[in-house]
Specification:
mainly alpha, globular
Length: about 325
C-alpha cells in the first residue's frame, strides 16, 4: 500500500522522461529532494523511467552554480548563498544516486559540500551553524564581515543534522573526509544540547534565545534534531550512554508539547513554523522579529514528515 501511494504521487509528476513543472534554470536545490523517493521507486521496481528522472536531477547537481569555495548555491535567486537546508535537499541525493548506480566520480564532492557548508556557517563561539551564509557578502541580511545570517534557526539546523546522519549511509567508510563529517555531527549536536530547553530537551524557534519574549518551542526543528539523534544511535554514529536518555526525554516531551489527538482520532502535529527564509520577494531580513512573525501552523508537511521519521525510529528502539 505504501509503495502504491508513493508510485501514484511520483507518477503524477513525470511523463515522457520529463518532470512536470520542473525548471532547471531556477537551479533550486529544493527540486532535488523528491529524487530520494524516485530512487526508492527505482530500488523497488527497477523501472528505467525512474532512472531517467533521477538522471535529470543528478545532472542538475553536476551543473549547479557554486560559490567561490565550490559549495552549491541554494537557488539561482540566492546567488553565492549557502543555506543549511540545501544539504538535506540536494547533497544526500547526490551521494545516494552514486551508491545506487555504483559510481564514485563525485563522492569527494559530496564530502566537500558537507565540510564546506559547515565551515562557512559555523559560529566558533557557540558551535552552532547559522541559517545561511552569503559568501559574496552582498545580501542585505548578512554580516558584512562573515556573510552569516543574523540568527540560528532551529529547523535549518534540523535539516542539516538529518542530512549528516543520512549521507553517512551512502559514503564508503574509507573515503577521506567522512570521519570529519561525523565529528562535525557530534560537535553540532553537542552545541544543540547546550541550548536545548532544560525542562523538555526540545528547541526554540530561534535556537539559542529561549529566554527571549515571544520565542517558542518549535516542533519541526525539534523533531528533526531528535530524529537525527535516534537514527544516529541506531546506525552506531552516536553513543547510547551519551544520548539515549536525552532522546527518551525529548521524545516524551515532544509528544506532550506538539502532538494532539482530536475527537475523530486524527493525530495532529502543532507548533510548526510555516516557513523560514532570507531575502526573496518578501525581503526577509533574518531578524528575531522576522522569525517570530512567520505563522505557526498545524500539520504542515515540514513538521508531519519529521514526526513520522522520528516515531518510526522510536518504534524500532522501543520494540528492539
Amino acid at each position: 500500500a505504501y509503495l502504491d501511494y508513493i508510485k501514484h504521487n511520483i507518477d503524477e509528476f513525470i511523463a515522457d522522461g520529463k518532470i512536470k513543472s520542473y525548471h532547471r534554470d531556477e537551479w533550486s536545490l529544493d527540486f532535488i529532494n523528491n529524487g530520494k523517493a524516485v530512487l526508492d521507486l527505482y530500488d523497488e521496481t527497477h523501472d528505467e523511467k525512474y532512472k531517467q528522472i533521477a538522471d535529470i536531477l543528478y545532472d542538475q547537481l553536476l551543473q549547479q552554480p557554486r560559490t567561490d569555495t565550490n559549495v552549491f548555491w541554494h537557488k539561482q535567486i540566492y546567488p553565492n548563498q549557502i543555506w543549511l537546508d540545501g544539504l538535506y535537499m540536494g547533497s544526500v541525493f547526490y551521494a545516494r544516486y552514486q551508491k545506487t548506480f555504483n559510481i564514485t566520480d563525485h563522492l569527494e564532492d559530496v564530502v566537500h559540500q558537507f565540510l564546506g557548508s559547515y565551515e562557512a556557517t559555523l559560529d566558533a563561539k557557540t558551535g552552532l551553524c547559522y541559517h545561511a551564509t552569503d559568501t559574496s557578502r552582498k545580501a542585505f541580511w548578512c554580516d558584512p564581515q562573515t556573510g552569516h545570517s543574523p540568527h540560528f534557526w532551529t529547523r535549518s539546523i534540523g535539516w542539516y543534522v538529518m542530512a549528516m546522519v543520512d549521507v553517512l549511509e551512502y559514503l564508503p567508510t574509507d573515503i577521506k573526509g567522512r570521519d570529519q563529517i561525523l565529528d562535525n555531527l557530534h560537535n553540532l549536536l553537542s552545541a544543540l544540547r547546550q541550548v536545548a530547553d532544560p525542562q523538555t530537551n526540545l528547541w526554540y524557534q530561534v535556537t539559542d534565545e529561549g529566554d527571549r519574549p515571544m520565542n517558542y518551542l518549535e516542533s519541526s526543528g525539534s523533531l528533526m534534531i531528535l530524529n537525527a539523534i535516534a537514527k544516529g544511535l541506531r546506525m552506531g554514529y552516536l553513543d547510547e550512554t551519551d544520548w539515549g536518555d536525552f532522546l527518551a526525554t525529548g521524545y516524551e516531551n515532544a509528544l506532550q508539547q506538539f502532538i494532539s489527538i482530536d475527537r475523530h482520532d486524527y493525530v495532529n502535529v502543532n507548533k510548526i513554523a510555516h516557513v523560514g527564509g532570507l531575502g526573496g520577494a518578501n525581503k526577509r531580513d533574518g531578524s528575531f522579529a522576522y522569525y517570530m512573525s512567520e505563522p505557526i501552523v498545524t500539520n504542515d508537511h515540514k513538521g508531519v514528515g519529521p514526526f513520522l521519521l522520528l516515531t518510526n525510529e522510536m518504534k524500532k528502539r522501543l520494540t528492539h
